[in-house]
Fold each of these.
Amino acid sequence: MLFKEKAPLYATELERKQGETLLYVNYLQAPFVPSLVDGPGVMARTIDALIQYPEVSGIVFVQQRHYAYAHAQVHLLSEIARLHTFLTKHEKVLSLELLSMFGSGEVLFGDMHYLMDLLRQDPVGCYAEVKRRVGQLRAQVASGQVVNQQGLLGYVRLLERIQGLLEGTKLIGQSVTRGILSGKLLYAEIFRPSILPNFSFTRLAAQFPLDAKLVTQYTIRSGEEEAIVTLLQIPSDAKYVYHVLPPEYALSEEQHTLLMIARQVLIEHRPKAEEFTDPEKTRSIFIQVARDLLMELAGQRGIALSYTMLEQLSHILVRHTIGFGILEVLLWDQKLQDIVINAPIAQNPVFVRHEQYDACVTNIVPSYEDADSWAGKLRLQSGRPLDEANPILDTDLVFGGVRARIAAIKEPLSPAGLAYALRRHRDQPWTLPLFIQRNMLNPLAAGLLSFLIDGSRTLLVAGTRSSGKTSLLGSLLLEVMPQHRIVVVEDTLELPVDALREIGYDILRMKVRSALVTGSTEIEASEGIRTSLRLGDSALIVGEVRSGEAKALYEAMRVGALANVVAGTIHGDSPYGVFDRVVNDLGVPTTSFKATDIIVIANPVRSPDGLHSVRRIMSITEVRKHWTKDPLSEGGFVDLMRYNVETDQLEPTPELLNGDSEIVKAIAGTVKGWAGNWDAVWDNILLRADIVQAMVRVAERLKKPILLEAAFHAQANHQFHRIAEQIQAEHGLPDRTLVFARWEAWLHQVAASF
């Protein structure tokens, strides 16, 4: 809410939206910062406004920065306003007729008028004054030196009634309970506003909660910008507090003014729908425009801007015009996995899921303006609808190297209005060595999965929500040899296609219609999968199997068997859960399910206290082909590795150790020297395990985490295949000891300088 230039000082405006009534008060021309703590006049005007508008649930003082008070704070003052109205209108404590019954009407009127004014300006001070006067007057009555004793007793009873009514309010109740009789001290604890830049509608609690204990603090960065993140713990709350101070909330007054003026100019040009087809290009153009505009405005106003400050202000300006505001700052943090914004948006803080501290509540409360703005940008960017007929929008968000999946819902699905959920993707692709370092799997499991991918098997990665399915599938893409083409089919762009392309992979992405969308111009997922079969010999990767595309996927599995990898993700917490979903929910014929070779189950494992969880691969299971109706009862599911909760390890089963895996033997049957030679096959799996384990060991010893990232892992895989080919040419088989020795020598030579 922005007041017009000629709006009078202390003017008020009401804004009603989704069951909330906000009161805006104009302090733009005020020579002081409006505060309920330091200004009796501010408190009095606020109480007066609440007397006039009792339905108000939030208050914003509008100045160069906006100072917002939430419902819980406003409720305390609304109670005082109602009490003031009750005393003056119903009890008529300012009536000369009433006061004349107790003595001199004019004297008592002056006394009561002072108390009612004090109630508006300083409710705690009013209570203290009433209590003091009751004590003084009681002492006078007890002394017997009063002319009109009955009248004075009547006035004392009136004051005692007012004292009792004051003690019945929550604000004064806190003062009495906590023994704080100084209004200023109590107000400083209670009335701590959220501070908003004048170019943003998002409320932010800049101060820490009073009873919070510091857990940790770190800095997040994006280019020239940085923000401080503080994790706090409140004894009475199971969730940690994720407190962030974005750069836009730490600017000077003249920088705020500069941004407000620049924003008014910049928003006159809104990007067209076609410009949003390449949001990164659009953003870079707007940043350059913002730089030029800010330099011009700063020159006109005689404001000196350093290069660093100009860059910061340019990015802030773009973030709050064509960007997603403070959401982008949260997405800088690589330790965040999920961001959740519940409806009604303006009445709930943002919640996040932190990789170390799990569910946290933030100090950020978005506004309805934010919600509407984000929805409009998502429609333009994705080309997908978000309206009453299509109340769900699932798309991706990309800016400055950050990738996230974002889901938005609105009425009628969400009765309270827009709500959002974001899943932040890692800046670089996950790799098997990174998962080993985090104990999601062990080197043997990594070696087995690498072997299966090289063997061109069909594979489903399954699990519950937030189990790491997509991340694991993305890491398996790096096990596909770069000379093989990869076609990726997704409805929401989550797999690290661009990152793989940058390190030399031959990879094509296809974007298809979401199963939740109707009336879109996008191609259906099933048609996209069938199209991929006409694009040449390629590994086929399906982002997530959700609905009718399952039948097309199994067509691809049958066509692609023994030619190249076909893989995807699906929701399911066990191999049978996957079978049940594919056959019974998605309508794939039972016999077609046999085209699945391997099912990998990934699920979160919770700690005994229930406060923490870790991601683990629970099983690697092969699907055998002899069963007819029910693979579970007919022995169609055979675990090759199974998670042991006591050891927190994925352990090989006797079927794998004894060479009884039909899938592994089928792969061996197509390789010269491996058919019928289980020892050679097992040695190759162990060799792959040795390699990833050595990568983790060397990276930790050299303190170079970059050795676990995709670029180096791709090089290491290439060297493994090249060296294995050399050893096979020299000795007939890629002997484990010889290959590893030569590969390890390469590792030590390259790792130090990479």
Amino acid sequence: MNLKPVLTILICLVGAALVGYFVAGHYAIMTLIGLAPSAFPAGDVAQSIVESILPPIGVTVAGVVVIVAVILLIGIVTFFALRSSVRAQGKVSEESRRSFLTGTVAGAAGAVGAAAVGGGAMLGRSFFGIGNEGRGWADPATKIFDPNVVKTHPEWKQEWRGSRVQEYGRLGRTDFKISDIVMGTGPLQGEEGERVVKLAIERGVNYLDTAPDYSGAGSENIIGRSLKGLRDEIFLTTKFCTPKGHLPHDASVAEYKETLEQSLKRLQTDHVEMIHVHSCDEIDRLMSENMHEAFDRLKQEGKVKYLGFSSHTPNLVEVANEAIDSGRFDVMMLAYHHGIWPKINDVIHRARTEQDMGVVAMKTLKGAKHRGLENYAEHADSYAQAALKWVHDNKDISCAIISMFKMQHVDEYLYASGKQMTPTDVAVLNEYDRQIAGNYCSPHCGACLDSCPEGVPIADVLRHRMYFEDYGAEKIAMNLYADLDVNASACAGCAAPCLGSCPVGISIQERTTGAHELLRFA
């Protein structure tokens, strides 16, 4: 066997894995965060080219273009390197014609393999969190952004009609008296969107959250039209981003300022009460010197009063703790719903007690691997109402934000305002959790880990099982499981001291032993 081509392909595959992980994986994370085209190499150019070919899509595609380019480059380099190596071997053996064909075929096969390795490494870092303690985008994508989450009850009940805000609280050190349920505006569309905004305000909602990248700036335009004659009644918030995505941490002061200037034009106002660093997953962007300088200048100019940040990303806890320690932020807006990871309660309590920050709970309707409450609907008024009341039970929470984009939402959601949890609400949430019990391992939890005498990384085992069963990523799951220093083989004969340690009631031993049977190589 000729060793040179073999050595060449091994070097190419290792290189593909490294480039895929460190380069493509980096840009994949930036894309998932939703950064603007300017955050990527030649991003503005790539965005313009794509938009000249395709119909306007209102989102950043520059990141995708860069990722594809990196993966293609991996394949091209591998193709030429391997083809050249095989041809060189062919010259020695004087079989040049055959070596030419063989080299081309080998190069093509190697290119496909290297591209696949690079793509797998990219997914491993960005989606599955390899190298980041498992904090990838798989958990937020399925457990926070799940499209199957129940948002609207199938029946618009008569007793909900005319519901109004019944309770107001304090938004931390801003001292603003805020409605306990406030309005997210991401999905707003057209004239119905304007009617929903006006109705919510009429019913007592006094905080609107928007962003330039909500509906490609459509949300800000709708709010601008809707607030004519009503602006003084509303605490209005927007984000440091463009219609195509969030500004990167190294954006200039001028760029940060310009994003708000453009938002003010769309909102038809001369100021907003607050601006957020949006969907923040990294300390660099949270603490960007240029962003903070831009905010200070805008505040001095009277165009904004308060600074906040939002996070529903893999590094939420780390980002939130840094924001608290900095003392720079007046409000935090975090993903928070029943069954979410336990550490977040400590973060919220710190924010309120140490910095008197306002805390806005978002993503209040829990997403998971379920298909809703259709079979339980006769026992419940509304899952959304129960979920909102659960949020209000935490007195460190200033308000719950929820997207309202249908007229029914105003009645349905505000019916929960000022109300306490009832036995029926508890039953609804318990049933909701029962439907997903046994496979909802809350991200960033780790409450069970100290209970295992064998040192089994329980969260990793269950996450790999999820990749296998729910994402169809069987090979990736099995390879990840094989790489664990300690696997779940020890669970079968164990006395299971882990039982009862899971705060959401997962039967750990049953799930880990089942995972071992699924994931181990025969």
